[in-house]
Amino acid sequence: MDPRDVIKRPLITEKATALMEQGKYVFEVDQAANKTQIKRAVETIFDVKVTKVNTIRVRGKQRRQGRSVGRTPDRKKAIVTLQEGQRIPIFEGL
Questions:
Q1: Looking at residue 91, what DSSP letter applies?
Q2: Is 48 helix (H, G, I), strand (E, B) or coil?
Q3: Confidence class of residue 90 from pLDDT cuts 50, 70 and 90?
Q4: How far apart are CA 7 and CA 70, in angstroms?
């Protein structure tokens, strides 16, 4: 799997911003990707050293619009811990 297919987008939330101070970054990743693939993808794309990867599967919620009921899609998040002193520059200034 190509590294750019593994990582879909970075997640910028209040909790994710607080984790950045600890050297942890949150990404939405492909559902089929495992921790090894996520680690390799982050190291390749951002040229950093990853020490740990935690993954979370988030189930979609039911949403209504008028009478029709639908679901938001399921997704997978990854919390990536970087080696001490390393940063990902696209997150700087948030």
A1: G
A2: coil
A3: confident
A4: 26
Q: Taking phi first (over 0 means left), then psi (-120 to 50 degrees means alpha), and beta for anything else, what does residue 16 get?
A: alpha
- Which residue, 41, 47, 12, is CA-closest to 29? 41
Q: Are 27 and 7 in contact (CB under 8 A)?
A: yes
What pTM was estimated for this model as a whole?
A: 0.89
Whole-number Å distance between alpha carbons of 75 and 60:
7
Sketch out the chain's domains with CATH numbers: 3-84 (3.30.70.330)
How do residues 11-38 score in pLDDT, each as one tens digit? 999 999 999 999 999 999 999 999 999 9
